[in-house]
Amino acid sequence: MNNNTLLKIANDFGSPVYVYDSEKIVSQYKRLTSAFNKVKQLKVNYAVKALSNISILKLMKNLGAGLDTVSIQEVQLGLKAGFSAEQIIFTPNGVSLEEIEEASKLGVQINIDNLSILEQFGTKHPKVPVCIRINPHVMAGGNANISVGHIDSKFGISVHQIPHILRIVENTGMHINGIHMHTGSDILDIDVFLYASEILFDTAKHFKDLDFLDFGSGFKVPYSKGDIETNIEEFGTKLTKRFNEFCKEYGKELTLGFEPGKFLVSESGVFLAKVNAVKQTTSTVFAQIDSGFNHLIRPMLYGSQHVITNISNPKGRERFYSVVGYICETDTFANNRRINEITEGDILGFQNAGAYCYSMASNYNSRFRPAEVLWHKDKALLIRERETFEDIIKNQIEVTL
């Protein structure tokens, strides 16, 4: 997508607006599958929580992906998008036994990361195949909020509790058909991930009738030119070799699973917002946009750095701006960032807006959530309408006071 295309989309659909390039999603999917093309059975389950628009899910289905879901609502979205239950894995955290049973009734693959729930589910449903999510206690990932493999994480059953798992499996007679792990997001050190993988392999040896091993995801994508990213090609070569060796040791051809979200959709997305005002104080020049952390919370939540470009004036001289939103508390997207000269009415583009942007948006300050547009085969397709005031009040009930 070039600047003229983005400006036309902003003009046609209004701002702010999320725009996704389907071609980038396709190329990322092919890059991952190519890196593991020497694995006989590969399963890529797209992490729905990254971007859950049903049109994006349909695109993933057309590519041959399955789905990784974390709520019963995501399971229902996947089924509505046309996925079969067998193509969906349900990996929740901290949900009730009732929600897990509801997902199980729909026929999806259940993944459990809690000893108590494992025992309860296995006692009531011993014939239902279950995957177990372990915590390898290997720290990988960036910000603490997205590193889930550490010793005190709420995610997974500790690898040190395997004897408890085995006792539950023996007592209930339940069938364990998969082992899963996830160390965190923004993984840079491949060797750390491979070390965690060895823990997964060792765990798998305790279970004699597995169908798959799921290595989660968390691959680092670049957020700016020259930024470090996970070397998927090197990782694919190294893990493929070790995985194929393990399958021979195990005596069975297992499926190798991944659950990428950000890796597939992050770079496809651009968030477009209009500059409402340029405000100069004693020490700062603020570019105030028609959005806020109600639409893009990642910089505030994770400290993420999204490249911001002036789509309207890409060749203007660079000046320093602090880009801020219209929410009535601090919502700063960039501090003293070099951006091509900004004037009121310009359209700014926030890069890497495909993952965890719309999906984490809210109606804070009673603002509407923006539209979503898919750029597909040189056409701008509206895949979600901008909200209206009726959407804000439709579930509210006015009572007589």
From TrEMBL:
Q: What class of enzyme is it?
A: lyase
Entry binding sites for pyridoxal 5'-phosphate = G218, Y356
Work out whether the entry's keyword set contains Amino-acid biosynthesis.
Answer: yes
Pathway-wise, it operates in: Amino-acid biosynthesis; L-lysine biosynthesis via DAP pathway; L-lysine from DL-2,6-diaminopimelate: step 1/1
Q: Which reaction does it catalyse?
A: meso-2,6-diaminopimelate + H(+) = L-lysine + CO2
EC number(s) recorded for this UniProt protein: 4.1.1.20
Domain (Orn/DAP/Arg decarboxylase 2 C-terminal) ranges? 18-354
Q: Which residues carry this modification: N6-(pyridoxal phosphate)lysine?
A: K49
Q: What are the record keywords, sorted? A: Amino-acid biosynthesis, Decarboxylase, Lyase, Lysine biosynthesis, Pyridoxal phosphate
- List of catalytic residues: C328 (proton donor)
Binding-site residues, substrate: R298, Y302, E329, Y356
Name the InterPro entries for this protein: Ala_racemase/Decarboxylase_C, DAP_deCOOHase_LysA, De-COase2_C, De-COase2_N, De-COase2_pyr-phos_BS, Orn/DAP/Arg_de-COase, PLP-binding_barrel
GO terms in the biological process aspect are:
lysine biosynthetic process via diaminopimelate
Any single GO molecular-function term of the entry would be: diaminopimelate decarboxylase activity
Which residue numbers delimit the Orn/DAP/Arg decarboxylase 2 N-terminal domain? 24-266
Function as written in the Swiss-Prot or TrEMBL entry: Specifically catalyzes the decarboxylation of meso-diaminopimelate (meso-DAP) to L-lysine.
Under the heading NCBIfam families, the entry gives:
lysA
Which HAMAP family does the entry link to? Answer: LysA (MF_02120)
| Assembly and oligomerization | Homodimer.
PANTHER family with a match to the protein in the record: DIAMINOPIMELATE DECARBOXYLASE, GROUP IV DECARBOXYLASE
UniProt record similarity statement: Belongs to the Orn/Lys/Arg decarboxylase class-II family. LysA subfamily.
The name this protein goes by in its record: Diaminopimelate decarboxylase
Encoding gene per record: lysA
